[in-house]
Design brief:
This protein is an alpha+beta fold. The protein has 4 helices and 5 strands; from the N terminus they run ββαααβββα. The structure holds flavin mononucleotide (FMN).
Length: 151
């Protein structure tokens, strides 16, 4: 995929008062997305169903975060963490995601994720943390420096 750097600069602010939900099968293929999740991701619900959930993966996210996500889901049946997602228009949004199993008659059938907005301070913290993780791993890090104040 080709990226134009300037397109990454547009942040979508996640609403506080709405549930942002998706579900996947056990391999991470999207089986359900609510309107709010589709809207903040700049997709139609129909475009998301049947696609791997990495359709919203942002290139700033270190691979290790998702390795940990899948390991936790397999071992503990749940995971939560801070995620920067990519919109279809190449903008981005930050969420705190809580993923857990969906059980039918005691059997794990799907995973569901519920997302909530995060603070500006957490966005700065996790952007820097994920940049550092990528740097340590020798991955490409987009050159961004956040400065809260001029002096
Ligand atoms: C229920 C559920 C929700 C997920 N939500 C996201 C998400 O919002 N953003 C994301 O990048 N990955 C999400 N993932 C993880 C993806 O399946 C995938 O592992 C990740 O995007 C990394 O892509 P890769 O596995 O192709 O490297 C979710 C997984 C599950 C099971």
């Amino acid at each position: 995929m080709q990226y134009n750097q300037s397109e990454f600069l547009f942040e979508t602010i996640v609403p506080k008062n709405e549930l942002i939900v998706s579900r996947t099968d056990l391999k991470g293929i999207i089986t359900y997305a609510n309107e709010t999740f589709a809207e903040i991701s700049n997709y139609e619900v129909d475009e998301l169903i049947g696609k791997p959930h990495n359709i919203v993966r942002h290139p700033d996210m270190p691979k290790a975060v998702f390795d940990n996500l899948w390991k936790s889901l397999k071992n503990d049946g749940k995971w939560s963490g801070f995620v920067k997602n990519l919109r279809k228009d190449f903008g981005f949004y930050w969420v705190f995601a809580e993923i857990s199993g969906v059980y039918k008659e005691g059997k794990l059938v799907e995973y569901k994720s519920i997302r909530t907005p995060i603070s500006f301070e957490n966005k700065l913290f996790y952007q820097n943390k994920y940049d550092e993780m990528k740097k340590k791993n020798g991955d490409f890090v987009r050159t961004i420096s956040y400065e809260l104040y001029d002096n």
